[in-house]
Each structure stands twice: as structure tokens, then as C-alpha cells.
Design brief:
Oligomer: single chain
Helix content: under 10%
Largest sheet: 7 strands, antiparallel
Distance between the termini: 25 Å
Number of helices: 1
Length: about 425
């Protein structure tokens, strides 16, 4: 479900929950139309230089997608062009299954620097002993496909339902992202207006502020440009968050969020609390928001995190707050604690601002917050709940929003071989 918070003032606020995405799919589809699988995030350089590149695809449907080319070729192709050269970056092979609301990640093997960003359940067997089983907490955002050429700044990127060059045309184009100077087949609308030429930690990502990923057929309107440090070219605070096939998927309906204490208002303690504690990225204190999340997926949840899809932070224009200067809040790592609910004391768990990338200015758009204590070894059973506290550092007061997506993943069934020398844990999916 989609978790909304639209606050008219730092002192007076509401936290509203609403369902946006449907639950888990019952079947898979192979016939994909334009807009059903889209380019959701990308960059063509980064802090590691010109080859610090990635392109993320997103299944924008509530069914798994099984890739099948619309001709006799090997699959779908992600292709780049700047008008002088055109070439395939990578192919998504026929038979690849992209989960409902899931991702496929391609990256440059020569410079991609975000391979350590957390993903989902580990997909490798791990060592076991007769007395204990060692579980790797999370996999990382390693690419599902790679390339090894530098894509020049300002190049357009397109996804085609074919890997055959002669058949790459508008009829077989599933999506594209380009700039004003990109060829028409490799952009939508007039293209994105800003070409990043500095080696900074940044990303172009599809705007999620309206609920679903925005796709009005205009790259300038559909994408936001964010960076971990705002500057001349990039004015909104945020972070890249590349996701691959192993990443958790949006579960906004099957992992429901409610007030920690339903007997009081959303703006009252313990549901929300303002503290004067000054710390890095919290010059004016912090705002604590406490909620309860319940696993209604029908299976144990082994990975749970929250992605910030809308926040008023550094670079948010006043036009998004009715003309008044927006509050500047930063998502921060929160700590475990306790709160009083109905005369009883309950435990509330903290969440971690995920790195890499390093976020010295706190989390903004597209930053993710992980419930690290939920893992393959310690999953959240179906029907059970966990209390979570979010912490926002306040840098400027005013109207603010804090909207998140719930990303979750169900645990596979672990099968451990009988105790023996060199025993291993086998994970059946």
C-alpha cells in the first residue's frame, strides 16, 4: 500500500494511508504493451566517472512478465543513440521473468559503483554447520545484464521488444528516455532538459509523487533529477536506488500500515512526536513518526524496506507547498525504542538509511530505509505485525510531506542437508 503524509505545518499534521497498488499476481503475461514495462531509473555517469552508468527497467503491472520478443530474436534490447551512433547496451533474454512491480537492472561493468546497494533475499547457498546455519542478510544490487562501453552524455535510451536491429522501430518501442538533442525514437516529448556533465552521485528516476510511476509520454514531466548533494545542475536532494530481479517489490496492499495507537490522532504522541534533539541534518530537531505494519501476504516476509517517493526537502520548490516555503526534512536512520500505547509499553523498531550511496546530507527523494532485523533467518510471519519509527531531521519548518512505498519480499523455504562435513544450506524458490 502507499503510505501518505501531507502536513500543513510542522506542528499540526496528518498521516493518511491509502491503497494504490494491487496485491500479488495470479499469473504471468508475455504480451506486453507500451507503458507496461518502462525505464524507471538511469544515469550515464557518476562519482566513479563517465562509465559509472546503469539503466533500470520496471514492470509497471500487477502480473509477472515473462520476456518474449515480438519477432524471432533473442529477447528485448536496451539501445542507445545520440544521432551519430546507435548500439545495443544489453539484451533481456526471452524467458526472463520480471516480477509484478519488480525490476531488471543493466549496468556498465567498467564503472558501475552501486553494486553494494542492498537488494533482497540472497540467491546463493551459504555455509551451514551441524549446530548453526549462517544466513547472509541481503543480496546486493548487482546488475542482471552488463555492457562495457561508455555511453556519452546526452544520449537517448530506448527499450525495444526485439533484439533485431532492423526491427527496432516505433511500433516495437516499449519506452524511451532522452534529452532535447536525442533522436525522436530515443526520447519522449521534447526530452529531459538537463544533461549532467559532472561526476556526482545522482540519478534520473521516474516520478512517483502521484502514486504510480508517472508516464504521460514526456521525459521532462515524467522524471525527477536528484543528487546526494544539491548544486548548480541538480537542485533536489535524493539518491540513486538501483533495483534488480532479486530486489523486494512494492507491497502496499499486502503489508498494511496503521497508526501505532489508533485511539489517538495521527498528529498526537505516540503516533507522531516532535523532539528538539539537534544532530547532523537536524538543525531544528527531529520528527518521529510511528506506525504498525502487518504482514498480510500469506507467507513470511524476509525483507522489508520503505522507499521515500515524496518528501519536502532541500530543493523542493515553494510551488509544491501552495506558494509557501516548504519544510526541509531529511530521512535519517532511527533507533529502536519504546512507546506507550493504551497504558502499556510497546517496542518500536528503528530503520536504517541504506547506503551506498553515501548520503551525508540525509535521505531525500528515492532514498530507502531498511528494517534490517527482518531477514531470511528472522522473517516476519504471516499475520504478525511490527512497530516502526521513522525519523525526519528538520532543517527548515513549514508545510511538508513524507510519502513512502512499502517494499517487501517473501522468504523462500530453506532446506538444510543433514549434518555432515561441508554441509550447505539449499534454498528452494
Amino acid at each position: 500500500m502507499h503510505l501518505y503524509q501531507r502536513i500543513s505545518n510542522i506542528a499540526v499534521a496528518a498521516f493518511v494511508c491509502g491503497a494504490v497498488f494491487a496485491g500479488r499476481p495470479a499469473s504471468a503475461q508475455t504480451q506486453v504493451q507500451t507503458g507496461q514495462v518502462v525505464i524507471s531509473e538511469l544515469r550515464l555517469r557518476g562519482p566513479a566517472g563517465a562509465t559509472d552508468e546503469f539503466v533500470e527497467l520496471y514492470n509497471n503491472t500487477d502480473q509477472d512478465v515473462v520476456v518474449q520478443a515480438t519477432d524471432a530474436s533473442a529477447g528485448w534490447a536496451v539501445v542507445v543513440s545520440n544521432g551519430q551512433f546507435t548500439g545495443t547496451l544489453f539484451t533481456v533474454p526471452n524467458g526472463t521473468r520480471i516480477p509484478a512491480r519488480g525490476h531488471f537492472l543493466g549496468a556498465n561493468s567498467l564503472g558501475y559503483s552501486l553494486g553494494g546497494y542492498p537488494s533482497g533475499n540472497p540467491n546463493t547457498t551459504v555455509a551451514a554447520t551441524p549446530n548453526a546455519v549462517a544466513l547472509v542478510p541481503f543480496a546486493t544490487a548487482t546488475p542482471d545484464a552488463t555492457w562495457d562501453i561508455d555511453v556519452p552524455d546526452g544520449t537517448g535510451v530506448a527499450l525495444f521488444s526485439t533484439a533485431s536491429g532492423p526491427n527496432m522501430n516505433a511500433a516495437r518501442r516499449l519506452d524511451s528516455f532522452g534529452y532535447a538533442g536525442s533522436p525522436a525514437l530515443f526520447r519522449e516529448g521534447t526530452g529531459f532538459p538537463v544533461v549532467v556533465t559532472a561526476d556526482v552521485e545522482h540519478t534520473h528516476y521516474r516520478d512517483l509523487r502521484g502514486g504510480r510511476p508517472q508516464d504521460v509520454g514526456d521525459n521532462a514531466a515524467d522524471f525527477l533529477l536528484v543528487a546526494t548533494a544539491v548544486g548548480t545542475q541538480i537542485t533536489r536532494l535524493g539518491a540513486p536506488g538501483p533495483e534488480n530481479l532479486a530486489s523486494p517489490v512494492v507491497n502496499n496492499t499486502t503489508v498494511g500500515g496503521t497508526l501505532l495507537d489508533p485511539a489517538v490522532g495521527s498528529s498526537s504522541p505516540p503516533n507522531r512526536e516532535r523532539r528538539p534533539n539537534v544532530e547532523p541534518n537536524a538543525d531544528l530537531g527531529v520528527l518521529l513518526i510511528r506506525r504498525t505494519f502487518t504482514n498480510n501476504t500469506g507467507a513470511p516476509v524476509s525483507r522489508l524496506r520503505f522507499r521515500t517517493v515524496n518528501i519536502t526537502t532541500a530543493g523542493t520548490p515553494a510551488s509544491e507547498c501552495g506558494g509557501s516555503p516548504c519544510a526541509d526534512v531529511r530521512a535519517l536512520t532511527s533507533q529502536d525504542g519504546e512507546a506507550g500505547v493504551g497504558g502499556q509499553v510497546v517496542t518500536v523498531r528503528g530503520v536504517r538509511l541504506e547506503e551506498p550511496p553515501a548520503q551525508p546530507n540525509g535521505g531525500g527523494y528515492n532514498s530507502s530505509l531498511s528494517a534490517d532485523f527482518i531477514t531470511l533467518g528472522t522473517p516476519l510471519p504471516h499475520g504478525q505485525s511490527v512497530n516502526i519509527v521513522f525519523k525526519l531531521g528538520v532543517m527548515r519548518q513549514g508545510p511538508f510531506r513524507f510519502i513512502i512505498n512499502i517494499e517487501a519480499q517473501n522468504a523462500p523455504t530453506p532446506v538444510v542437508t543433514p549434518p555432515a562435513r561441508n554441509a550447505t544450506l539449499r534454498v528452494r524458490r
